[in-house]
């Protein structure tokens, strides 16, 4: 596997990561020191697993709501334990940033392939569509 620096050198405009989901469709891309996950939810629960072709630590995360959905809760996980607190905004165009990062869960190794975004809704409607921006520190 390549380091993040080698990936950036070969493709300075960013590159795509594999993003598999249930409950909707998502894409993931690395640009700079950020992983950007864009997803459309079709269910009250959704999970997106992103591959990790390089080692890094999650240092911050934020979520931008693309649609409104009352009661949407979104976490960044490793793979089932939350790294962030709830970053799920329930109103369109709102940006919500994590207030904390679990330093016992924030490290990912090359090939772990277990960076997970989970979304759920306490309402009967589907979760909000959103963009999650994860700030990373390459290791």
Overview of this structure, please?
This protein has one helix at 4-10, and strands at residues 15-17, 19-22, 24-31, 34-41, 45-50, 56-65, 72-77, 95-97, 107-108, 115-121, 130-138. The protein has one domain: Jelly Rolls. With 139 residues, the protein is mostly beta strands. Strands 1, 3, 4, 6, 8, 9 and 11 form a 7-stranded antiparallel β-sheet that branches. It has a 4-stranded antiparallel β-sheet with strand order 2-5-10-7, with no helix packed on it.
Mean pLDDT: 86
H/I helix tally? 1
Strand content: over 45%
Record field, number of beta strands: 11
> What characterizes the major β-sheet?
7 strands, antiparallel
Structural class: mainly beta
Q: Name the overall outline.
A: globular
The helix content is: under 10%
Primary descriptors:
globular; 1 helix; 4-stranded antiparallel beta sheet; 139 residues; 7-stranded antiparallel beta sheet; mainly beta
Quick rundown:
This protein has one helix at 4-10; strands at 15-17, 19-22, 24-31, 34-41, 45-50, 56-65, 72-77, 95-97, 107-108, 115-121, 130-138.
Walk me through the topology.
Layout: H1 4-10, E1 15-17, E2 19-22, E3 24-31, E4 34-41, E5 45-50, E6 56-65, E7 72-77, E8 95-97, E9 107-108, E10 115-121, E11 130-138
